[in-house]
Each structure stands twice: as C-alpha cells, then as structure tokens.
Amino acid sequence: MNIPNELLYRRTHEWAKKIDSKEIMVGITDHAQKQLKDIVFVELPSVGKEVKAGAPCAVVESVKAAYDIYAPLSGKVTRVNQSIQEKPELVNKDPYGDGWLFQIEISDPGELDNLLKPDQYKGVIEAEQ
Amino acid sequence: MKKTPLQDIHSKLHATMIPFHDYSMPLQYDSIMNEHRFVRKNAGLFDISHMGRFEISGDKALPFIQYVITNDADRLADKQVLYTPLCNKQGGIIDDVLVYRRDEKNFSMIVNCGNTGKDLSWLQKHSVQYQPLEIKDVTDAVSLLALQGPSSNHILETTLQCRLDSLKRFYFTDFVWDNTRITVSRTGYTGEDGFEIFVDAGKVATLWNLLLEKYGRDSLIPVGLGARDTLRLEACLLLYGNDMDETVTPLETIIDWTVKFDKDDFIGKESLLKQREKGIGRKMAGFEMIDRGIPRHSYSIVKENDSIGRVTSGSFSPSTNKNIGLCLVKTQYAGIGEEFQIQIRNNTYNAHVVKIPFYRKGK
After folding, report:
1. Domain segments of chain A as ranges
2. Is the ipTM of this complex over 0.95?
3. How far is CA A95 from CA A55, A66, A88, B354, in A?
4. How confident is the model at residue B363 (pLDDT cuts 50, 70, 90)?
5. What is the pLDDT of residues B288-303, one digit of tens each?
6. Chain A touched by B106 (CB under 8 Å)
7. For the domain bounded by A11-122, which CATH number is listed?
8. Are A43 and B230 within 8 A, CB to CB?
9. Which CATH superfamily is domain B2-49+141-234 in?
10. Chain B residue with the nearest C-alpha to that of A89
11. What does the alpha-carbon distance between residue B327 and residue B64 come to, in Å, rounded to a whole number?
12. Phi, psi at residue B219, to the nearest 5°?
C-alpha cells in the first residue's frame, strides 16, 4: 500500500499536504485511483470557490461512473491542476504528484486535527477489504 | 445472489465482481479501457451465462414466435438467428432478444438477464392458442460464452479443431466437442466479428480454461461487463433497461427496422401502426460531446432552457477518445448536426448529434 508518511488523509480517500501554514494541496490516494481505475475525466472546483470540510467539491470519473471528491478542510480554492483536465490519466499514474487536484487556503487550521494519520488511514483501507 | 458456473474462475482471475440483476458478475479483470481496446485489436472472452435462455418447441412454434416478436421469423432459414424486440400491446418493448431457428418446430431464445422471469411468464401467457408447445428455461443447464474480436475466428477454429470460415454472421452451427454438443453462433454485442458459444454448464469451465490457456495473454484475455457496455455502445447496440423499456417503442429507437408491418398479426402491431401514422414525438439519436464532460444514463437534455429529452446511455469511448451517448429527444432535434446541451450535475455542456454507429469494425 502506498500511503506516504508526510500526508494526512480523509476516510473517503483524499489526501492533504501542508504547503505552508495556510495552504494545503489535495488529491486522491493511490488506493482510490486503483479502485477507480481508468480515470477519464476530472471536474475541478473553480478558483476562488469556498469549500467546506466534508462537502463534495470535485468529481472524478472513471469509464464506469462518477465519484464525488470531498474537501478535507474548509477554505478557499487557490489553484487547480489544469493539466489533469487534458490528461486525467495522470491521477492514475501519479496520484501524489502530477495527479494532484487542487489547493485550498484553509480557514480553520483546527480542522487539521480531524484528518487521519497514515497508519489510521491504512486501518480504514484494511477495514474495507 | 446467483452465480454462474465460472464464479471461482473469476475470483482466481481477481475480477472486480458486481451485482447485475440477480447475478454476481465480473465488471472488469484488469481495466475496462485495456479490455475494451484488446477486444478491438485481438480478442476477448466473456462469461455471459447470466443471460436467459429458452427452448421453444412444438408444431406451432413458428406461428407462436411470429405472434410474440415484431421482426419476421418467416424469413429465417434453419440455423439462422434473428434479433427482435418483444412488445406489449401498446408497442412498448418488453425485451430485446435473439431467436435461433433450429428448424420449423424448434427454436431457442436468448433474453436479457433481468427479464428472464418476466419474459417466461409473458411467453407462457400467449402460448395458449399454440398448444402443444413447450417453453423450457435452460438458463442454468446451458452456459454461454462470447468470444469477440478480429482474431476470434482463428482462436475458435484452432481450439475446437473445426472450420468456421463459412459460418455467416447471424448463423449458428452445432458440433460435438469433448463428448458434448456445443452450439456456436456468429453473433455478439461488441461490433466485432465473434461468436457466442452454448455449452453444458458442467463443461463451461473446461472450455473457458482451454481457450485462455491455449492462447495466453498476448492473444486472448477475459473481459468483464464494463467493457461489454462500452463496446456495445460504440457499436450502437442497445441495452435493455437503459436505452429502452416498456415505455419506449421500437419505432422511437434506432431498431425501428425490426418492426415488420407486412407480416401477419403480432402483439403490439395495432399500436405501432397507429404510432407510425401519427408520427413519433421523440427519436433516438447518437451524440458526441463538444464540451468536456461525460454523459451518463438518465441525464437531462436541454435546448434553450427547455427540456427536450434524456441520455439513455453515455460513456467515454475508448476507441474514439470522445465522450459519446445515445439519447431520446424530441424528434425535431434528432437529426445529424443538431446541437443541444447535456445537464451534468449543476452545469450544462454542449453536444451535437452525429452519424452512428460511433465505431465500425475495420475502420
């Protein structure tokens, strides 16, 4: 299982990476991309949009179906990954790198405590299997 | 949940299983995209034992079949196969099926998995005037495989040591293999050359393994329902429950050619005749997305803020790399070149009607 140590997770299979004290980067986990397979479309939030922790804010579509992506933290979207609109397969190939989804300027750093540590997230996957 | 006789084999192949009507079926083994492309280029093997199979026998089997289908079984030679809807009195589609004529008194029918029970009661209900007639459900006794793709002919000939070159599309043949009768028909649901193979449920695992082991992963792979759906959509073969149901008549779809008004009475004829005279209010069309976005079953279609119809099937198309779909829209918007918008979640995205099928083999 590829669950990088430096990231935080949501039980719905998103990861969050602290860029600095205010900004986080968001993507889906390796486990999620393996489950979805063949990602062919990503619908991203627009820059400037306010998102709420736990609310759906993007959609990833495989050949088979569309899946909601939930914001791990509340805040404002500051950047989105344009290259995955052209090449959605990047989310499959490099979910923690070139396949990132968007960045958020977080409004409540306290929410970080609600996210899962790598070993907790590993427990979530194991429980699912 | 019902299982086909290949359930253990599917788990050994690490298939992702999904419930499909009453059955647990493989969605994909590897990935839908790879499986789809492999069938277009080489060949794929599908377990389609979930589909319902009936054997219909009796002196009046032919007139009975003629009465319950809209297409014309009188035109069938022995060992020929016919695609046809079964309609209700109102002309609504009860199911779309394949009719196999063994001879004038013996037919088989392949029906959709989710409709097996409904079809059987429907057929029995209308068989009263055609007695003595036997309608036997052989779904559990006889398994069904599909071998599809440009190299299917070669693979099947060398595996079964038979000649299939002369077997024409929509014909079938029987022969003995491993001391059992197997029926091979040149039919399929992918838009490629290929076969559907009827074999005893007790022997299907042997045949499945024989095919896959003889050829190896470079020539033949197992394919799940996911790719079956994208392959059939590109070829514009309809899916019951999505593209049509009892509220849709064949005249409104792209299988209007399966209604033969020049034959004797059949269930639904009167309603369909009326509909033909009056004209249809909606029509099925194939469309391609202009904007980025994937159309899916049941999404609304709008034009200048008016609702004009709905998507019946939609997907990313692995062969064309486009997002495609079939829809039922008000007739005036069904012509090639018409533009409209698909409602996807909270936005609308432009699409236009194109020539179908989306994919034609050898192109």
Report:
1. 11-122
2. no
3. 21, 17, 11, 35
4. low
5. 999 999 999 999 999 9
6. no
7. 2.40.50.100
8. no
9. Probable tRNA modification gtpase trme; domain 1 (3.30.1360.120)
10. B33
11. 33
12. -115, -30
